[in-house]
Write a structure and sequence with these properties.
This protein is of the alpha+beta class and about 160 residues long. The chain is built from 4 helices and 6 strands. It has helices at about 50-70, 70-85, 90-100, 105-125; strands at about 15-20, 20-25, 30-35, 40-45, 130-135, 140-145. Strands 1-2 form a two-stranded antiparallel sheet. The chain has a two-stranded antiparallel ribbon with strand order 3-4. It is extended and about 70 Å long.
Amino acid sequence: MPARIRPLPSFWFEPNLWIDGCWVTAPDVLEVVNPATGQMLSEVALAGEAETISAIEGAQRAGRDWASRSAADRGEILARAAQLLSERRDVFACLLSAEQGKPYHQAAGEVDYAASFLRWYGEEARRLKGQVLPHPEVGREFIVESFPIGVAGLITPWNF
C-alpha cells in the first residue's frame, strides 16, 4: 500500500531578520521551493555584512543577559523551548518535508531529536557546578568553573 501523503499546512513567513530583539527588513530574499512540486513555499531573508555585524553585536548583548541568569532559569527556558517545539512537531515536520523532500517520518524524527537536545541541555544547565582539582604543587588547587563565554557563529550543513 502506498504511503499516505500528509496535507501541507499553510506556511507564511515574513522574509525579515530577527536582530537584537527586533524585526529588520532584509536587503535581499531567496525563494524556498518544494522540490517535489516546484511550488514556492516562502521567501527567506538574506543578511548582508551590516546585518551580520548588527546581529553579532545584539547576540553579545543578549549573551550578557543570558549569563546573568541562574542556571535554573536557563534550564527552564530551554525546557520550555523543547515543549513548544514538541507541541508543534507536525507543523515543523511538514515544513521540513516540503522544503527538503524528506519523508515525513524522518522529518518528525528530526523535530523530536532537536527537542531532545533542548531538554538535555536544559537539565544539564541545572547541574553546572565548579570543581576543585589537585595542583602539582603542595598546598595549591585548581578551581574549574563552567560559564557562558560568548557568541558562536555556525554554518551548518543543510543537505538532505
